[in-house]
Amino acid sequence: MSWIVEPGFFASPQVRTAVVIGGLTAVVSAVVGTFTVIRGQSFAGHALTDASATGGSGMTLIGIHPLLGFACGAVAGAGAMEAVGVRHARGRDLATGVVLGVSIGLASLFLYLDTTTTATTGATRHILFGSIFATAPSTVPLVAGFSVASLGGIAVVYRPLLFASVNADIAAARGVPVRLIGLTYLLALALAVGLSSLAVGAILSTALLIGPPASALRLTKRVGRALLTASGLGIGATWLGVLLAYDSADWLPGHNGLPVSSFIVAVIFVVYLVSGVAVRRATRGRVGAAPGLNLDRRATSRHRALHPPGEEPSCSPGS
Amino acid sequence: MTATCEAGTSGGEILAVDGVSVALGGRQILDQVSFAVGAGEFTGLIGSNGAGKTTLLRVLLGLLRPTAGRVRVAGQPRSRHDHSVGYIPQKVLLDPDLPMRARDLVALGIDGHRFGIPRPSRTRRQVVEEMLAAVDAESFADARVGRLSGGEQQRILIAHALVSRPKLLLLDEPLANLDLRASQEIVRLLDWITTDQQIAVLLSAHEMNPLLPVLDRVVYLAGGRAASGTTEQVIRADVLSGLYGHHVEVLHVAGRVLVVAGPSAATIGAPRQPAQCSK
Predict the structure, then answer these.
(1) CB contacts, 8 Å: A223 with chain B
(2) DSSP letters of A116-183?
(3) Do A223 and B85 touch (CB under 8 A)?
(4) Which helix (H) or strand (E) holds B34?
(5) Is the CB of residue A180 less than 8 Å away from at least one CB of chain B?
(6) Is residue A216 less than 8 Å (CB to CB) from chain B?
(7) What is the pTM of this model?
(8) Cα–Cα–Cα angle for B49, B50, B56, rounded to 5 degrees
(9) A 87-116 residues inside an 8 A Cβ radius of B
């Protein structure tokens, strides 16, 4: 086992903080991200990650914890997108693009000022690529609070959110306050994006938000199971990424180890590819069966077997 | 300008539309539309594209406030929070990867508007099961709903709408994009809903022929104005000419009804005559 888990892995306080923050972030991203995928709003999700980079870099500039900045930036971005309130898809797409562009512009200005006027030379790296190993244990309560708020918001609007995501017209005719539900979802999304900006960085948080739910939606045809599967996959990928990044310090002599977010994103991508292959195999094996029928349990268990959380992947390409 | 032929509704009056006008962006979409639908009646809302069918349905749903006139459902003014009206919009596109079985979509019709997470309940499952049997959808109840055929999805959407026990079911172009057999099945199902379940159905369509054998009443929309009554009362050259504002002819060809522009169609722009319906 010692070649999988380097000596000192579980004793390291940074690792423990990283495991807690990573786990919470993965669950929140998976739950919110499942709705993002169902609603077809991954572009909006990505725009919010850029808005969170703006907030994080801006707050760093005035000496406030970047997590607050990430969340505030994303909430402001969500507010801006909601305020534009374009009903048709194309206009919404453009509005999202404009918010995204402005966010990146401001973020680059703030990051420039961060690196030139203050001594926080790591700011750019931490904000864009995450700081899960550099986060103080004292941040954990704040992370937990954001997680509870985001998951709680989704739990409260769960049914009407699902209804409005399936078809907004039918939901509105049934009396669902579609706009209010959409705003609640956007706020939950903003918190999720804030968390994942801290864990894997503003640039990569889309991967954590979209990747595990996109794989889960291939593997199951029930929302509850999709949420559980996505959470499991997200946690597995995050912890595995943490482990690999910790191990990677010994891979290259005289090096500090490779960035954890790159590992997390790589694992997520492999999971996504494997889920596609698993589904195609299962479908091919059942010619004549109703589409998607009886597919989910088998594929999911196979997938879980391939990705036990926190262990070496037995599914690296070729195995 | 009202063109109603009140033939009197059988049973209790479920829907009363009284002088409804809608102007959007300076354009008059609906002009003094009045008609009524009784319990268990099958009414066809017929008109070409752009005649105002969807706008009228949105008014009936309480999603759009009319500039004039009023709508009453079961004697009550329309509000968004009463569940006596079921609705199936046109061109519902369900994503093929939507993680939802057909039965889950039906279940959403029971309590999808309520906050919180649903708890499993036997009565809930039973109600869904009965509704799936009623629309003959048991064989594909466990398939991903977004991967069903158009006709199968339409049946699931009808089950979704019926499971909340509405008094009136509104369907916007449910037969568009369906092949002949699927569309016949839907018409049969809707006929059963009206006669057996005593639920009033108001269905919009630009093609009335598949519906003529089962329709109790017709509301014909043209140029924002409506004529209503039985098929015989409304689908007549004089009534429709008055509605269109120019001469049209109603041809009966091989059991089908065709509305075509008459020889003097060049008189478009002539002063419109109020549509007259003779009883």
Answers:
(1) 99-100, 104
(2) HHSS-TTHHHHHHH--TTT--GGGHHHHHHHHHHHHHHHHHTHHHHHHHHH-HHHHHHTT--HHHHHH
(3) no
(4) strand B27-38
(5) no
(6) yes
(7) 0.83
(8) 110
(9) none
Contacts of A35 (CB under 8 A, 6+ apart): A154, A161, A162, A165, A185
Q: How far is residue A264's CA from residue A260's CA, in Å, rounded to a whole number? A: 6
> B98 phi and psi, to 5 degrees?
-55, 125
∠ CA B145-A185-B109, rounded to 5° = 35
Tell me if B61 and A173 make a contact (CB, 8 A cut-off): yes
- Report residue B21: phi and psi, to 5°: -125, 145
Tell me if A170 and B81 make a contact (CB, 8 A cut-off): no
Please list the pLDDT of chain B residue by residue as tens digits (279 residues): 444 444 444 457 889 999 999 998 888 899 999 999 999 999 999 988 888 899 999 999 888 899 999 999 888 887 666 678 899 998 888 888 899 999 999 999 998 889 989 888 899 999 999 999 989 999 999 999 999 998 899 999 999 999 988 999 999 999 988 888 899 999 999 999 998 888 999 999 988 888 888 899 999 999 888 888 988 888 888 888 888 888 888 888 887 888 888 775 444 444 444 444 444
Tokens 């369509």 locate to B205
- The one-letter amino acid code at B36 reads A
Q: What is the DSSP letter of B232?
A: H
Q: Distance between CA atoms of B190 and A221, rounded to whole angstroms?
A: 29
3-state secondary structure of A302: helix
What residues contact residue A164 under an 8 Å CB cut-off, 6+ apart?
A: A171, A172, A176, A178, A181, A182
**Distance of residue A270 Cα from the nearest chain B Cα, in angstroms:** 20
Q: What pLDDT is stored for residue A215 in this prediction?
A: 94
Could you tell me the two tokens for A14? 């940074």
Query: Tens digit of pLDDT for each residue in A35-67?
Result: 999 998 888 888 999 999 899 888 888 888 888
